Structures are given as structure tokens and as C-alpha cells.
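Task: sequence in, structure out. Protein: Aspartokinase.
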Amino acid sequence: MKFGGTSVGDGIRIRHVAELAKKYRDEGNEIALVTSALSGVTDALLKNAKDASETGKTSGVKEFIADLTKQHHKAVKDAIGNSGIEEKVTHHLDQRIEELEKALIGICYLGELTPRSIDYISSYGERLAAPIIAGSFNSLGVNSCSFTGGEAGIITTDEYGNAKPLEGSYSLVKERIEPLLNECIPVICGFIAQNEAGIITTLGRGGSDFTASIVGAAIKANEIWLWKEVDGIMTTDPNIVPEARPIPVISYIEAMELSYFGAKVLHPRAIEPAIRHGIPVRVKNTFHPEVPGTIVVKDQKLSADIVKAVTVIKNVALFNISGAGMVGTIGVAARVFTTLANAGVNIVMISQGSSEANISLVVDASHLDKAVKAIKAEFKNGIIKEITPDRNISVVAVVGAGMANTPGVAGRVFGALGKAKVNVIMISQGSSQHNISFAVSGDGAKKAVSVLHKEFGLDQAK
Ligand code: ADP
Ligand code: ASP
Ligand code: MG
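Result:
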């Protein structure tokens, strides 16, 4: 079971989480628990690290540390309610916070923030949360102790900020965590891991879903449960369309497409480890545990729903490369992609018309400048005449395995958008036919999502 940031947002919520997990354990289940940081803490850590490196002001660090200490001390009191245990946990947290303060002050003096130090600083969110949850279990009479991701056995590559687990992690986690399950509930920090040299790494924002799936696969769990503040994976982001409904059953492939195409509900790689052993993944609401939620499974019998969900990626930018010289010149696309890969640009979407006179690309908005610069440098003379960037873009996708071999879906998508006067800038459909994605201007995205959600009847009870 993994609990997200909102689920463990404060001490009262942590208490609720401990009681909830205890209930399932009392019913005869063995549980390993993965936790996020208290909501907002990872963002605050990142912001303060950045401020420290840019302003060098140690007074800002002191203020932040005082707030963070207060927040976590209060959580300890509300979650535990047993003075002996509270004292032990508080002592442990104070040691961690002292280390963090030293690191932030070091960053003030150095005036630099490396990817490695960003991972180190941001690891403290989970490292402060996990001992409180273990303490809350202890106060309920349940044996429990906490582990960092590295202590649990998750060893990764050195790609700070987006590290990948090494194969050996699965046997290591099994060796370290499985034997504990019949005597206690181990509480494992989500999101953080370590590399082979023992240096802290992170699995990317929202990475505690990924941790849960790695641990679940390692111990061959019967199910992996991700507890959040929504009733499951919904037909679209409920913040954009209030009529969004939970999807009862969805396949691994559909869930992966959904998260790749921006549905913030799942970390994009969270399903991969579960697939190894075909472990079902459930998404449930911590605050409404009686609601069944969503179950993500290997194969789903073809359902009547052609389209399961609509997603949106914000903060992307589009640029168009054109020039008559591109026609018939072999290797232009290869050069474009190699250049962008070397510049570290993440490409979200690609489209090339058969006239070959232009290639359109959608990239992360923060990568646009380096992308344009790299392409200009690579094609200094000739072939490419024009590069037109457009910053205010969103990518919308309709996702559903039922679209494969169902004619007319694209017609319905673009017909509905046309009727609603949403201007489509670029279109892409992979040959897997599990999604159709398209770029619209940033202002058109909300309308596009609402229109398609309605067009495919996703707002209707089934
Ligand atoms: P966690 O607490 O586990 O970190 P998240 O915050 O990552 O959970 O995911 C839940 C949030 O994702 C919701 O608050 C919701 O706004 C957003 N969201 C976006 N798209 C979807 C979707 N299709 N289904 C459910 N939630 C979505
Ligand atoms: N705390 C981390 C984040 O905010 C990981 C997570 O919540 O899943 O990104
Ligand atoms: Mg998340």
C-alpha cells in the first residue's frame, strides 16, 4: 500500500492511514507500506534549496527549518499520542532536520545547486514522514519500523532526478522486506533510492507510486494499492471537468498511456514493475475507503467504451522546422532527433507531413530554447529555412484500447472539436491505436477536454 502526500498531509491524516492499514492487517493481510512526504513538503524543499543557492541567505534557511520542524513536531503529536513513542520519533526527526539545515546552509555558501544535491535535499520529505507513520503504528500496538528507499534495497542508476532501478533491486528488496511482513508493517520512503555508491537518488516527481510498484513486484504482492485523494483513475482530471467519473477497470497499457499523456494520477513508470508478475494495481481513495476505486489489470475483455479517458499535458511548446531543402534529403529526421537527444530535449510528440517540407515537434516548454538553439547550430547552412516556436501549447489525448480497429474515432474527435470551434494545431496517432493526441493552444485545452469527455459519454453513469 502506498499513501500519497495528501493522504499523509498532517498528523490526523497519518493516524487515519495507520488505522486504515491496521484494519486490513487485522483482516489477515500482510502489508508493506510506502509513503510520500507530507503534502507540499517536497515542493517547499526544492524551493528553499533554489532560494538558498540564488540568494545565499542563511536567514531564509533558518526560517524554513523552523517552519518544517514545527509542522513535523505537530504531526508527531497528532499521529502518535503516546509520549514515549513521540519522544523517540521527535528525536529521530530532529537529527534528520539538523542534517538538512547543514546541507542548505552549505548550499547558501557554495551558491550552487547540483542535480545530486537537489536529490539529497528533496529526499528529506519522505525521510521525515516515514518515522511518523511507523510511530503511529507503534502507538496502535502494531510492530513497525521505517526504511529509506536505499535501505529497503532500491538501488538505481546515477540519473539524479529521474533515476532508474537496477535489476538487482528486486532481489535485494525481497531479501530485506519479505521476512519482516509476518511480524510488522515496514514503512518505506517512496520516491527516494540510492545509487551503487550509496548516494541518494530520486525516481522523479510523483515517484512514490513507482516505489510501491517496485516493492510490490519484488515481494510478489497479491495486489499493489495506491491510496490517493480521488475515487480512482478518473475519465479525466476532475479539476478540469467536475463530471469526471472513476474508471472501474482499466488495462496496464491504457493506464500507462494515460500517465504518459499527462494524467497526474499515476507516475508514468509506476505500472512497469507490476507488469513483470501481472500484479493488479488498485487506485483507491484514502478518505472514502469503501469506494471500490480503479483496478488496473493485464488484459481487459473488450469493453463497450471505445474511449476510456481524456488527458492533457500542459507546459509544452511546439516548434515547426521547415524548408524546401528537406524534401527528398535523406537523414534530416535522424539528424533532428539525434541533435535534440544530445541536447537533452524531451520530445513529447512528432509529426511529419508526406510533403516532407516540415517536421513539427512538441517538447517540454522548459526545453524549447535549448531545442531551437541546437537545431539552428546543427543546420547552419541550407536545408532548414525556418524554425517557428510557439510556447503556449497543450497536448490533449483520448485514450482507450477499444479504439484499435474501430473506424471513425478520429472523425468523432475532430468533428466534435470543429463544432466547438477548437483549433487543432497538430495531430498524432501511434500505430498501436491506443490513443489519439493533438496539440491545441493553451487556452483551447480546457474546452477540448470538456467537449471530448462529453462526446464519448464519459460523464454518463454506466
Ligand atoms: P498522490 O496523492 O498519490 O500523489 P496525485 O496527487 O499524484 O496522488 O494524483 C491525484 C491527482 O491527480 C488528483 O488530485 C487529480 O487532480 C489529478 N488527476 C489528473 N488526472 C486525473 C485522472 N484522470 N484521474 C484521477 N486524478 C487525476
Ligand atoms: N514527494 C514526492 C513528490 O512530491 C513523491 C511523491 O509524492 O510521490 O514528488
Ligand atoms: Mg503523486
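The chain has a mean pLDDT of 93.
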